[in-house]
Amino acid sequence: MAIETEVLVLGGGPGGYTAAFRAADLGKKVTLVERYPVLGGVCLNVGCIPSKALLHLAQVIYEARACHAKGIRFGAPEIDLAEIRRWKDRVVKTLTAGLAGLAKQRQVQVVQGVGRFTGRHTLEVKAPDGEETVAFEHAIIAAGSRPVKLPGWPEDPRIMDSTQALALEEIPKSLLVVGGGVIGLEMACVYHALGAKISVVEVADQLLPGVDADLIKPLHQTIAERYEAIWLGSKVTSVQPAEQGLEVRFAGPNVPERQVFDRILVAVGRRPNSDLLNLEAAGITPDARGFIPVDAQRRTKVPHIFAIGDIVQGPMLAHKASHEGKVAAEAICGLPSAFQALAIPAVAYTDPEVAWMGKSEAELKAEGIEYDKGVFPWAASGRALGIGRREGLTKLLCDRKTKRILGAGIVGPHAGELIAETVLALEMGADAEDLALTIHPHPTLSETIAFAAEIIDGSITDLYLGKKVKPA
Ligand code: NAD
Question: Is pTM, for the whole model, over 0.90?
Answer without folding.
Answer: yes
